[in-house]
Every structure is written in C-alpha cells, then in structure tokens.
Design a protein that fits this description.
GO molecular function: fatty acyl-[ACP] hydrolase activity
Strand order of the largest sheet: 1-3-2-4-5-6-7
Largest sheet: 7 strands, mixed
Distance between the termini: 31 Å
InterPro entries: AB_hydrolase_fold, TEII, Thioesterase
Organism: Eudyptes sclateri (Erect-crested penguin)
Keywords: Fatty acid biosynthesis, Fatty acid metabolism, Hydrolase, Lipid biosynthesis, Lipid metabolism, Signal
Mean pLDDT: 90
Oligomer: single chain
Pfam family, one: Thioesterase
C-alpha cells in the first residue's frame, strides 16, 4: 500500500490528467514547450473521445513544483519521467505529443524506454522541432544562456509568441518565466543524440507538425529515426500555431485518427 501511495504522489506531482479515463484504450502523454506548464495541453483531454486519456508532464520549478530546483540536464528529466510513468506505460499502449522543447524531451524519453525496456510509443507526434540529430539543431546548443541578459531572453520569448502579454506585465511572473525558460534551454543544451550509421531507433509512425509562419524546421531528417511511416503537416500560424482553436481541433482529430488506426 505504501508503495502505491508513493507511486500515486509521484504521478500527481509529475503529471496533470484533468480528464481521467481509466477505461481508455490508449494514453496520450503531452510534453510542453520551454518555460511552459501543463495548463494548455492538459485541457486537450476534453477534446478527445473516451478511448484516449490525455496527460501533460510537469517538470520541476513550475506550478505545483515551484519550490523544487530545476532539473540540471536531460538525463535527470528523462530518468524522472521514466521512473514515474513506467508502470502506467507497461499497462496499455501510449503515444507521445511534444511541442518544441517538449518534442526533444518526448524523443529522449521514448529513446530511453526503447533502449532500456523495449517499450515504444504506438505513435510519436512532434511539433515545431528539428530532428534531434540534424545539423539544424546545433545552433540551439550554442545560444549563450549563461551570459544572456534577462531582456534578451524576454525578447526571444516574445518573438516566439505563445505567452499572453498581460502575464508579462506582472514583474514576478515575468521574472519566473524568464528563469524557467533559461533553465529549460540549459536542459536542452545538455541533450545530444548521435544517430549511429545503421541504427534506426524506432519502428513507430511519426507525425511532424509545424506552423506555416514559423522559421522552418528540419523535419525531413525525422525519416532517419523510424522504420515506420512518417507524415508532415503545416498548419497556419507561427511557432505557437497549436494554441489556435481551429488548429487545436485539427491536431486532436488527426491524433485521434492515428491512434485509432493503430489497431489497438
């Protein structure tokens, strides 16, 4: 009993699942963007049918984990997510959705699950992200986050969009957002994935989404990472195209179709 109580506490801390569906055929685990929390993606639960249960991952340093120190590197993030979710992921099929920074985390978690436990998502949905072994990913690793002024980071956040401007009017919220974004970027810079010559890590299907007005991402290189099918969709909007209600409907319908066609 004690173990299951600790397990439950770990789940509550790490995962927001607003619409619990114990009888769902599949779990969709969502991974938010840099500086982000669970509020938007956890709400997706209400847009899906009863066959899919949606949860959103919450990293330390935000929301109910505000008092916890930020994760220092990608390995720490991956290990925590895996240890908390492993039992759930062994019980029934699961799919991952990640946006931007969240795409890289979802990939790293999926890779770890595959290499260590032989587990694989039935579908990987990535959004607004380069393939992690692509040349195009390298500039992200050289952003000088240690030296960057708060103002520079704030400008970058504003260029990306997705943060309501009224939040940025509040000094405390603005400060915390800049800090969270900085720390998430630091985690991203500790992540490296070298694709071995003949090794194709996944066999699941991968779908790549992107905003039509966003700076282009190297999506083609995702081809190298799975022996499954791969498809690409550009939706109207910038980096945060996915917050547009019409795009949200497209995404949730498309994800549902992919999961239901996986023949669970």
């Amino acid at each position: 009993v004690l173990f299951s109580w600790f397990f439950f506490l770990g789940m509550e801390k790490l995962v927001a699942c607003l619409y619990q569906r114990p009888n769902a055929l599949c779990r969709l685990i969502c991974f938010p963007w840099a500086g982000g929390g669970t509020s938007q993606l956890a709400q997706w639960g209400k847009l899906f049918s009863s066959s899919i249960e949606v949860s959103s991952v919450r990293l330390p340093g935000r929301e109910s984990r505000l008092k916890e120190p930020f994760a220092k590197d990608m390995t720490t993030v991956v290990n925590e997510i895996t240890s908390v979710l492993l039992k759930e992921l062994q019980e029934k099929p699961f799919a991952f959705f990640g946006h931007s920074f969240g795409s890289y985390i979802s990939f790293a978690v999926a890779l770890h699950l595959k290499e260590k436990y032989g587990l694989e998502p039935i579908h990987l949905f990535v959004s607004g992200a380069h393939a992690p072994h692509s040349e195009a990913f390298l500039p992200i690793k050289s952003i000088p986050i240690y030296d960057a002024e708060d103002e520079d980071i704030l400008t970058y956040i504003q260029i990306l969009g997705g943060t309501p401007s009224e939040l940025l009017q509040n000094e405390d919220i603005k400060k915390h957002l800049i800090l969270t974004f900085r720390e998430d970027l630091r985690v991203l810079q500790t992540f490296s994935f070298e694709k071995a010559e003949r090794n194709i890590p996944f066999s699941c299907d991968i779908t790549c989404f992107d905003g039509s007005e966003d700076k282009p991402h190297d999506l083609e290189a995702w081809h190298d990472l799975t022996s499954g099918d791969i498809s690409f969709y550009k939706l109207p909007g910038g980096h945060f195209y996915l917050l547009e209600p019409s795009n949200e409907i497209f995404l949730t319908k498309h994800i549902t179709r992919c999961i239901e066609n996986a023949g669970l």
